[in-house]
Design a protein that fits this description.
The complex is a heterodimer of chains A (324) and B (318). Chain A contains twelve helices and 13 strands. Chain A is of the alpha+beta class. Chain B folds into four domains: 68 residues, Arc Repressor Mutant, subunit A (Orthogonal Bundle); 48 residues; 74 residues, Calcium binding protein CcbP, beta-barrel domain (SH3 type barrels), CATH 2.30.30; 74 residues, no CATH class. Chain B starts with a helix and ends in a 7-residue tail after the last helix. The chains are: A alpha+beta (324), B alpha+beta (318). The interface between A and B is large, with 132 and 131 residues. Chain B: This is WYL domain-containing protein.
C-alpha cells in the first residue's frame, strides 16, 4: 500500500528540522520510507518529482528550507534551520485570543479556512490561551470565496505573478482573454474583485471574479508595471455601484412605499396625502433602482434619468423590443 | 476528512502541543484542535510512522489507549513553528474585517486591533501580503448594537421591517438567534408574527426596539448557510427568467437551480422563491435586459405594474 502523503510530508519536515548540517537528496531518500519506495518501485524521476512537490508543499506551510548548492562535495544539501523556523514569542491575553478565534472562523473558502485553523493550531501549540470550548457566539461574520478564480488569484497576488484569464465584461456577450498583473483582492457586499495592471490596455483595471470564465493561468516573469503604494479597489467598485455620487435626482414616492429609497434620500418633503418628494444621490444604476418600484415612484428629473426609467418601463410593458 | 496539507500542518502543531502535555486527554486535544476524536486518532496512527530517520529507527514513540495520549521519547524537534504567509494572511484579513464591522463592541474591537499588531510582529515579512486582501463587512451600527444587546440580554425585539417581497413595511416581534454578516449583515430570528424562522437584512430595518420581554426562541438546529443566506427549498414555486448579457448578474445574486447558456450570450435561469410575487421587482429592474417567462401570471403582473407606472408619464402629468 502506498504511504499516505501526510506521513511522507511529516517525515520530510522532521528530517529537515532535526539535522544540524544540510542533507543531500540521497540521504533524505534513505531516511524517508516513502521516498525509498518511490525510488525502488518507480524511478529516479518519480522520486525527484515527488521530492520537489513535497518541498513546495512544506514551504506553503511556512517552513523555510535552505538550499546549499555545494554543501556536500558538490551535492546540493537541504535543511530547515530551527532558528529561522521558530515562531517568535507571542503573548496574547484571553480577550485577544478569543477575538482571534472568532476571526479565524470567518473564512468559508477551503484553503483560507484551513490556513486560519492552521495558524490557530500553531499559536495554541505555542501556548496561546484559547478557550477550550468552541461554543459559537451569536455573531457570525462570513467571508465567502465561491469563485473558482479566488484561490489562484490569491496566490498570484501574494507572489506577484502575472496571470491570464478569460473575462466577460458586464453586459458583454462573450469573454475575452486578459493579461493581468494582480495587485489586490477585495471582497465587497459578498463578491470578490481584483485590481491589477491590464497589460494589453496598459492601465489599471478592476475585475469581478465571478465574471472570469475558465482557468486562471500563472505566467512566468515579473511584473512590468509599477505597483501603486495603495490600491483602493473598494472605492472603484463602490463608484460603479453608484456610491459617492455628487449629482442629485428628484423623485416622487408614494406614501409608505419604497423604504430603501427613502433611506437614501438627502431630503424628503411631503407633497400631499399620497405622495412625498425625495432628493436622492444620482449615481450609476439609479434608473434600475427606481424602475423596480413600478407605479410607486415617479421621476421628476434630471431628464436623462426620467428617459432611462421610461425606457425601462416600456421594455417591461412590452412596448419596446426586448433583447433577451 | 481533511486533505494531506491540512493534516500535515495539524500534526506538526500536534507534536509541539503534546510535548508540553504528557497524558493529554483525547477528547480535550480534539476539541483544542477543532477536529473530531476520530480525526485525531487518525493523526495518532500516522505519527508513530514519522521520525527523523526511518532507517535509524528514531521514530516518534507516541501512543494512545483511546483516552489519553503518551509520547515516550519526547525530543526537541517539536518547537512552535512560524506562521506561513497564507496562515498570517487568513488571520489578519479576517481580524481586520471583523474589527471594521460597524456596531461591534468597542472592547472586542480593541482586543482584535491589539491581536492584529501582535500577529503582524510575529509573522514578520509573511504578514505583508495580507495588505493585498481586503474585506468589507457592512452593517447599520446602531441597529447592530441594539440586536447585539438583545442577544446578550436574551430579550425580544420589535421591528418595523421593509419586506422586499411584499413591497411594504411590516411590524414584527422577533426572538433573536444570531447576527450573520456576509457583505451585508442579517439578523436570523424566530418571527413570532409569522411563526417561522426568518432572516432580516439590517439595512431594511426601519425601526427597532429591544423589549423588556425575555426572548424565547424555539430550539432549532442552526441553519446551514453554505449555500447562501437565502436558501429556497424544493417546495418553493419555480420561476424562469431569461436574461440577455446585461442581465447575467441575476445568476450571481439569486440562488438558482440551473442557468442555461443562450445563443446571444444570455442565460435561462431557473430559480425558486418562497414569495414569487417579490420577483415582480426583478422583472421591473431588468428592463430590456431580461424577462420572466414562467409563471405567466408573474410576467403579467410585472407588465401591468410597468403600464401603471407609465401612466404617470403621460403628457402633462407629474
Amino acid at each position: 500500500m502506498a504511504i499516505a502523503k501526510a506521513e511522507r510530508l511529516m517525515n520530510l519536515a522532521l528530517c529537515l528540522m532535526n539535522t544540524r548540517r544540510p542533507l543531500s537528496k540521497k540521504e533524505l531518500r534513505e531516511s524517508v520510507e516513502a521516498y525509498r519506495e518511490a525510488w525502488q518501485q518507480g524511478s529516479e524521476d518519480a522520486f525527484n518529482r515527488m521530492f520537489e512537490r513535497d518541498k513546495d508543499d512544506l514551504r506553503e506551510l511556512g517552513l523555510i528550507i535552505d538550499v546549499d548548492e555545494n554543501a556536500l562535495d558538490g551535492e546540493i544539501g537541504y535543511l530547515a534551520r530551527r532558528d529561522r523556523n521558530r515562531l517568535p514569542e507571542i503573548a496574547l491575553d484571553a480577550e485577544e485570543a478569543a477575538a482571534l478565534a472568532l476571526a479565524a472562523r470567518v473564512w468559508q473558502q477551503a484553503k483560507m479556512s484551513g490556513a486560519a485553523s492552521g495558524a490557530l493550531q500553531k499559536l495554541r501549540a505555542a501556548g496561546v490561551p484559547f478557550a477550550e470550548d468552541r461554543e459559537h457566539g451569536a455573531l457570525e461574520p462570513r467571508i465567502p470565496g465561491r469563485e473558482a478564480a479566488f484561490e489562484p488569484l490569491l496566490t498570484a497576488a501574494r507572489d506577484r505573478r502575472p496571470v491570464t484569464f478569460d473575462y466577460r465584461k458586464a453586459g458583454a456577450a462573450t469573454a475575452e482573454p486578459r493579461s493581468v498583473e494582480p495587485w489586490a483582492l477585495e471582497c465587497w457586499r459578498g463578491h470578490w474583485y481584483l485590481a491589477g495592471y491590464d497589460r494589453d490596455r496598459g492601465s489599471a483595471r478592476v475585475f469581478r471574479l465571478s465574471r472570469i470564465t475558465g482557468k486562471v493561468r500563472s505566467r512566468a516573469g515579473a511584473f512590468t508595471g509599477e505597483v501603486p503604494e495603495h490600491v483602493d479597489v473598494r472605492a472603484v467598485v463602490a463608484r460603479f455601484a453608484g456610491e459617492g455620487a455628487t449629482a442629485v435626482a428628484r423623485v416622487k414616492v408614494r406614501s409608505g412605499a419604497a423604504y430603501p429609497l427613502r433611506q437614501r434620500a438627502l431630503e424628503t418633503r411631503p407633497v400631499d396625502a399620497d405622495w412625498d418628494e425625495l432628493d436622492i444621490p444620482y449615481g450609476n444604476g439609479l434608473g434600475a433602482d427606481l424602475a423596480e418600484y413600478g407605479p410607486d415612484v415617479i421621476v421628476i428629473g434630471p431628464e436623462d434619468l426620467r428617459a432611462d426609467v421610461i425606457d425601462r418601463l416600456r421594455a417591461v410593458a412590452g412596448l419596446a423590443e426586448v433583447q433577451a | 476528512m481533511s486533505n494531506a496539507i491540512d493534516q500535515t500542518r495539524r500534526m506538526l502543531s500536534l507534536v509541539t502541543y503534546l510535548r508540553e502535555r504528557p497524558g493529554a486527554e483525547v477528547a480535550e486535544v480534539a476539541r483544542a484542535f477543532g477536529i473530531t476524536e476520530r480525526e485525531l486518532i487518525g493523526d495518532l496512527n500516522v505519527l508513530p510512522m514519522c521520525g527523523t530517520s526511518f532507517r535509524g529507527g528514531d521514530l516518534l514513540d507516541i501512543d494512545t489507549d483511546g483516552e489519553r495520549i503518551w509520547w515516550h521519547n519526547v525530543d526537541d524537534v517539536a518547537q512552535p513553528l512560524r506562521l506561513a504567509a497564507d496562515e498570517a494572511t487568513a488571520l489578519l484579513v479576517a481580524a481586520r474585517a471583523v474589527a471594521g464591522l460597524p456596531g461591534l463592541r468597542e472592547r472586542d474591537r480593541q482586543a482584535l486591533t491589539r491581536a492584529v499588531a501582535k500577529i503582524e510582529d510575529a509573522a514578520g515579512e509573511n504578514a505583508e501580503s495580507a495588505a493585498r486582501i481586503g474585506v468589507t463587512f457592512e452593517a447599520e451600527g446602531t441597529v447592530f448594537a441594539d440586536i447585539d444587546r438583545a442577544l446578550s440580554e436574551g430579550r425580544l425585539i420589535w421591528l418595523r421591517y421593509w419586506s422586499h417581497g411584499r413591497g411594504e413595511l411590516t411590524e414584527r416581534e422577533v426572538d433573536p438567534i444570531r447576527l450573520v454578516t456576509e457583505g451585508h449583515t442579517y439578523l436570523e430570528g424566530w418571527c413570532r408574527t409569522s411563526e417561522d424562522r426568518r432572516t432580516f437584512r439590517l439595512d431594511r430595518i426601519a425601526e427597532i426596539k429591544v423589549l423588556d420581554e425575555p426572548a424565547n426562541p424555539p430550539r432549532l438546529q442552526p441553519r446551514d448557510l453554505s449555500a447562501g443566506l437565502v436558501a429556497p427549498t424544493a417546495d418553493d414555486p419555480q420561476v424562469v427568467v431569461e436574461v440577455g448579457p446585461g442581465g447575467r448578474w441575476v445568476a450571481e445574486y439569486y440562488t438558482h437551480d440551473s442557468a442555461e447558456e443562450l445563443p446571444d450570450g444570455g442565460l435561462r435561469i431557473t430559480l425558486r422563491s418562497a414569495e414569487p410575487a417579490g420577483l415582480r421587482t426583478l422583472a421591473l429592474r431588468l428592463g430590456r435586459d431580461g424577462r420572466i417567462t414562467a409563471p405567466a401570471q408573474l410576467a403579467e403582473q410585472a407588465r401591468t405594474a410597468a403600464l401603471a407606472a407609465l401612466e404617470h408619464y403621460r403628457d402633462g402629468q407629474v
